[in-house]
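Lab manual, section 2.4: Encoding a predicted structure.

Procedure: take the sequence of the chain (97 residues), apply the prediction step described in section 2.3, and record the output as structure tokens. A sample record is shown.
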Amino acid sequence: MVTEQVVLAALQQAAAAHGVHEAEELGGVYDQEWPRWYAAHMTETLAKAGHPADAMVLQAALESAAAAHAAHEKELGEKDPDWPEWYAAHMTPVLNG
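Recorded output:
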């Protein structure tokens, strides 16, 4: 069973690496395929931590979290700087499903 803290750590690592990927490999262009990229990165990170996960399940969980989080931000009326925590809370039950 994966904990919310483990998912959060994997998300934070993916976010940091993805920022470099967008800046250096994509020349600062927004990556429309970010859920697939994050899922691949997180699959490796979680496996190294002893929590094997399926990349397709992770990608679907990320896409679901992104849609739900967009609605959350709309309600807030602003960007949510704590998105990794929010995503982790949303994704953990799905990953443990």
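Check your result against the sample. The helical segments are 4-25, 34-48, 55-76, 83-96.
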